[in-house]
């Protein structure tokens, strides 16, 4: 951590966020919910203007961007309802108990409080849903923490325009000044992350940069939580019976998932394991003609994709299924059509150094596995943590009615140990914004495999638990007061029950 003073404009931002933290933390959840809905309303109203800026800066289509605005708005509204519900506080009350089995128990009450100012490093590939007002930002604001967004260099104008919309809505809703700021530049972002007034960090991007930022957060004199979403290749397994049942449908869904947004999605299916000799490669090949060319997000990403594509195509045993293409225009922007290749399992093993790294763009690999191979064993052999794992089954297999049911259960178990979301008969590029969603996974998918960046559980990342012992009612957080003015769910352990703990499982004594 450096002792260098912040640049004046960055110091102003950090000081304002730190100054706003106590007042923002003290806002009533219902008031904070109204403010978040006001931001969502303002985003919807400004959507057409913001989409035009985003389209120009990122090359993503109007339809994709408009859908992303809607998703961002919905997540803000979802978090507003979560604030009013109060379950995210995980409030617990243990009443004083003079007859507690271990000696008199004091009154102990536990809830969660906001961490303080947070810096969020936004993503390039989701200029709305993981940027200034995206999932991480929405969770920070919902938690009651001031937010500093380090804008992505791929859409700086959009970042500023979005922030203007949000700040105006927050101000008109009566939120404290200094609750939301946008800064630019990697150096400024690192300086803010190192500042002792910052309580947590979030990031969506590459493994290399994410690891650097996570190490900075951990190396501070007082380390802080850092939640990074870094990389994922999202393995898919397709059974022979599923291919026999609906090869064309699977091929069409696969290509849609690989080519959507030019394959620049953290949930793109990078590897699909299929039985050797199956009909799926031919079905994919037949579905390939006519796939449109799509601009990649920026020249740097396009160059990296071209290099990865060349490396994969040049690996021994790799055979093109759909050749695909990548071209560069006079401005250095890359335009790609999807590339799909196949490789036998033995060649995949031999070329794993060249093949296993994520290809961020419209490219995917079909891995052909011979009869007798154990799919469950392939998961830990080839993959670290991932955001998703997918299994395509036939109808009878889905009911556990086939001879391979035990092997399929073992595969599901193997996937569950290494991914955050296990899908059946679908594709991972659709991430539903809903309370039960889990968008995370073991390293390197994320830096913290118990957290999620989508869904209401995302709020918990920016809170910390605090217990109050024998506290007078006047000094308790509202969620812990006996009259429960917030009407939140609470777990209550009344006096007198400790002597019965575990009794339901005790074997009767036989004399």
UniProtKB/TrEMBL annotation:
<protein>
    <submittedName>
        <fullName>Aldehyde dehydrogenase (NADP(+))</fullName>
    </submittedName>
</protein>
<dbReference type="GO" id="GO:0016620">
    <property type="term" value="F:oxidoreductase activity, acting on the aldehyde or oxo group of donors, NAD or NADP as acceptor"/>
</dbReference>
<dbReference type="InterPro" id="IPR016161">
    <property type="entry name" value="Ald_DH/histidinol_DH"/>
</dbReference>
<dbReference type="InterPro" id="IPR050740">
    <property type="entry name" value="Aldehyde_DH_Superfamily"/>
</dbReference>
<keyword id="KW-0560">Oxidoreductase</keyword>
<dbReference type="Pfam" id="PF00171">
    <property type="entry name" value="Aldedh"/>
</dbReference>
<dbReference type="InterPro" id="IPR044151">
    <property type="entry name" value="ALDH_KGSADH"/>
</dbReference>
<dbReference type="InterPro" id="IPR015590">
    <property type="entry name" value="Aldehyde_DH_dom"/>
</dbReference>
<dbReference type="InterPro" id="IPR016162">
    <property type="entry name" value="Ald_DH_N"/>
</dbReference>
<feature type="domain" description="Aldehyde dehydrogenase">
    <location>
        <begin position="7"/>
        <end position="368"/>
    </location>
</feature>
